[in-house]
Amino acid sequence: MREQRTTPAQRPFGFGPGGPMHGVTFQQAKDRRGTVRRLWPYLRSSARELIIVSGLVVITTLLGVLAPYLLGRAIDHCLRQRHIGDLAHIVGLLAMIHIINPVGMYLQSVLMVTVSQRAVRDLRRHLFERLQRLSVSFFDTHAHGDVMSRLTNDVDTVNNALSQGVVQLVGSLLGLTATLVMIFWLHWRLALVTMTMVPLIYAVTGLLGKMTRVAFRARQKDLGALNGLIEETLTGQRVVKAFRREERILADFDEANERLKKAAIRAGIIGGSMGPCMNLTRNLSYAIMVGAGCWMVGRGLATIGLVAAFLEYSGQFMRPLMQIAQVYGMVQGALAGAERVFATMDEAPEPPDEPDAVPLPAVRGEVTFDNVDFAYEPETLVLREVSFHAHAGQTIGLVGPTGAGKTTIINLLTRFYDVANGAIRIDGHDLRGVRRADLRHALAIVPQDPFLFGDTVRENIRYGRLEATDDEVVEAARVANADAFIRHLPEGYDTVLTESGSGLSRGQRQLVAIARAILADPAILILDEATSSVDTRTEAHIQEAMLRVMEGRTSFLIAHRLSTVRHADVILVLDGGRVVESGSHDDLVSAGGLYARLHHSFVTAGA
Amino acid sequence: MRPYRKWALLAPALMVLEVAMDLTQPRLMQTIVDRALPAADMGMTLRLAGIMVLAALLGLVFGVGCGIYANFAGLNFGADLRSALMRRVQSLSFADLDRLETGRLVTRLTNDVEQVQEAAMMVMRILVRAPMTMVGSLIMALITYPRLCWLIVVMSPLFLWTFMYISRRGHDLFLAVQDRLDRVNVVLRENLAGARLVRAYVREDHEEQRFGVANDDLMVRGVAAGRVTATTLPIMVFTLNMGLVAALWLGGWQVYAGEAKLGQLLAFTNYLVQMLFSLMMVGMFVVRLVQADASAERIEQVLSTIPSINDVEDVSTENGVRDRFRRAKTVPDTVFRSVPDTAVSWAAVDFGYRGAQAEPVLRGIDIDVAPGEVLAIVGATGSGKSTLANLVPRFYDVLGGAVCVGGDDVREVSQSELRGRVAIVPQVPSLFSISVADNIRFGRPEASDDEVEAAARLAQAHDFVSAMPEGYATLLEAQGTNLSGGQRQRLAIARAVLCRPEVLVLDDCTSALDAGTEARLLAALAEWDHRCTRLVIAQRLGAIRSADRVAVLEDGVVVGLGPHDQLMESCPTYRDIVWSQTNAPGDADA
């Protein structure tokens, strides 16, 4: 993530002399007004700070506008009219302004940093909380990187705009107005001279800005094409090598690279002229002010002190004009970012519990599937008319080829997804009529490839029941046959696992997950047997632990080995989304169906 | 950067001229105020003002010129850097790719290159400009008003101190922010990856709490870092303005006493402002440079990766890069072997992914495959099947023993020739966003349309391709997302078949096909007029039974090798697999 945070598109400023170099690549928010309205609540809690900041902005801006006037007074009044005694006065006033102003600036930025950090903290928290309410299908269908980027990159742009942009924008606008009022009040003729630069600035930023946008859009397109090519090539790099396409790929790449270079140079030159052009307007306005001012002084129309003051005012006048364009781009980017954040927040959450959902009393563990149909995508049914009944405490084995629907049954039982037709009942209660939290408290899953947090082994087990004591954790680990290997870890139960538990073997991860499930002490247990390379010792441990933990619980076992499933009370043989056979091992063998055939080839060949 | 030295030097040279033009402005103003005004010489005033305008225009010309050359140099440099990276990546072996990770490589070639390129341009334009303006202003200030120059001497240390304070304190604080941000990311990533677990154990509130802690911590650090940066500008503005006030006070008295002229004082304050503003600029850009530095380091890391698989004595230096690295790496005591009269042969092969120290993936593999034979490779997930197959086109080098194709040690054949002889259909088919026909033609660009169609027919792809809106000319989306899994697999098979290789490796590439299609495909391959050796990694009984012999792998060791019937008798692992693979793990529909 760290690397992605500074992609050019969301770097807030095109600092370079090129001015709004990146401003042009900002995406625009589709509904600016709506986005602003939704952002507002995040600022409301900082209303006090915002009022203080506004006051500070007004004070510093007005004082800033006063300073050049004082300079002019010093020159005219004290030096030209030789009232040198008043110099101390004026200089003292100036010194005061220049002490107050930095302090005001400091307070402003500190307050805004606090405000913006608080706002984005809340934004992040809300987004995260919304994510917790989303159904599993959201995470199955959305790229995690994309979701992460909402919470980091996009929130970051909001932060930047809030902490720097907004105050700058307001300050610039206010400063511009105040300067305008001041200069016309002081000397309308010189003010008009200052204003002569406005059309030029307008023309330069307008024309050059437009050309820059066009050129940068072209550059962006070529950049996108090249990056697309890079990404596709590298993603398929193995195939490229396997089919000896390196040379041709490089030829394509060179072409795209060259095209980008040309477009980028063009865009860079046009965009890069913005700086010198701005410099030109600055110097021109300086020259014109000096020329015109001194001409007026010569004619007695103005005083030299006023000209000196106006030299400063023209600077003060130009700076906000240039800044506004930059800051505007930044705020635009932030709005687009905020809009994406809100879009994720607007994802439909897991449908809430039915209003009349009842609390599930202590679960005995009776499970009924009643003519259940299910489809992930509307037209393709994954389960068809699945019906079975599991008595409390029974072990149900699920077997069948890939795609037969074994995992789907688990997804429905945990209510990660809702059935399309039919019903699933636990102890006679329809799942849709009970509170989700109660249902899930009654269940525990040991997946094939369990997820572990980058935390200690102890905390990973405790995840099954947060209030469990250390002793209970150890006890659960012992029942799960995990205690022995955990004690052999460098720091025992306090060993911090690397993310997704890659410090442990897959079998060991499953043992930890079994311990976690034991700690949760569910009425219904779901075990997905690991097929992957688990060494034989660990495998024996897992099997033993599984059998132990299944005792006294309704257990669903997705089995990949004949030996594990043969002791199940009921074996459901799934094929193409249907239960094609069901019964005990002996029943199924004597029935002579699919299961029997599989078993037969196994046994006769092995005998 | 070196080839563009001329441009890279021209840019700052023009910059000097631009800055010089800027610096003449206050000087000219001073002349007007001190000489033209008292003499009431309107002509001189206007003439000097005209010169100022002219200087401003010249400044524009020099500035734009500087921009042009900086762009030429910087962007050519960026393009070359990208190209060097791409060439390096093309020469990397699979092991190198595993290590560098595709996602990261993409970032290196895109984002990191941009960062470095922009930094290069920035150095040429801003970081040269600022010090030049500073020194220039200092000199001009000295010339204009030597008596007040000690002011600059007093102010400079304050500025320097601010810089050092910010960069040191700021650096630590920003590191802390980064650290907390990473923490927030970890919590989020875990939450996304463990979404099922969180919901299954109803731990949403717990997760929110966990996130809340990290999130609050990030905010606190963010505020702390923000406070330090918030001091920078005020301190600088304060120092600058105090300098100006002091200049006005002291200069005012001197002007009053007639010891200095008013224009002198005004010009001096102007230079002071210019100087200090450029200082502030430098401060702002240092941060960007630090970022670019990190990018440069990451790029260097890729560029310095020496391809771990190289051709031995081929390279007729048509490719200078490859030649250079041939010498860099050759396993010193490699013993080449040759196993005549075999199509593929693994001779005492040991292999591990991260060199000898890692857990071995394959141990002591000895299999000879006769020309035209079909060998099925079976075993549980992680038993080493794909690894075994990947050694044949030399995607990886063995640690011990040798792999031979057509009797020759794969390390003695050039990679290009070897991969012409061996075609592989990978487990996850990689398709490109070009037309269907071009995807099939990927390994043999010169193949005719008829050949493409024949290959597609053989791979059972012709029917669905013809049903597509533009048939073989239909453009695929990236990774072929507009096709189903089974369709992608069939195109990948057609692509390999079109090459008419000596050895065809099918790495579990029919998993998404329904049984009927798979059977038709197997039959078509069996009747194919091109006689080739096939290595088939398979899960399903159908594919396994169509093979002449089966190799059974368990934990990287061959535990059974022979025809199906024989193995059913002699190999318990095989019997177990036959049963379990037909009831394969069912998480595909999760």
Kindly state the mean pLDDT of chain B as a whole number? 81
Which class do the helix and strand fractions of chain B yield? alpha/beta
Morphology of chain A = elongated
Instruction: Characterize the biggest β-sheet of chain A.
Output: 6 strands, mixed
* CATH evolutionary superfamily of the largest domain in chain B: ABC transporter type 1, transmembrane domain
Poorly predicted runs of chain A are 1-26
Helix and strand arrangement:
The complex is a heterodimer of chains A (607) and B (590).
Chain A: H1 32-44, H2 47-80, H3 87-133, H4 136-141, H5 144-186, H6 188-195, H7 197-235, H8 237-242, H9 246-272, H10 274-299, H11 304-345, E1 367-374, E2 383-390, E3 395-399, H12 406-413, E4 421-426, E5 429-430, H13 436-441, E6 443-446, H14 457-462, H15 470-479, H16 483-487, H17 506-520, E7 524-528, H18 536-550, E8 554-558, H19 562-565, E9 570-575, E10 578-583, H20 585-591, H21 594-606
Parallel strand pairs in A: 3-8, 3-9, 6-7, 7-8
Antiparallel strand pairs in A: 1-2, 1-4, 4-5, 9-10
Helix pairs in contact in A: 1-11, 2-3, 2-5, 2-11, 3-5, 3-11, 5-6, 5-11, 7-9, 7-10, 10-11, 15-17, 17-18, 20-21
Chain B: H1 5-36, H2 42-90, H3 94-100, H4 102-144, H5 149-193, H6 195-200, H7 204-256, H8 262-303, H9 320-328, E1 344-351, E2 362-369, E3 374-379, H10 385-390, E4 400-405, E5 408-409, H11 415-421, E6 422-425, H12 436-440, H13 449-458, H14 462-466, H15 485-498, E7 503-507, H16 515-526, E8 533-537, H17 541-545, E9 549-554, E10 557-562, H18 564-570, H19 572-581
Parallel strand pairs in B: 3-8, 3-9, 6-7, 7-8
Antiparallel strand pairs in B: 1-2, 1-4, 4-5, 9-10
Helix pairs in contact in B: 1-2, 1-4, 1-8, 2-4, 4-8, 5-7, 7-8, 13-15
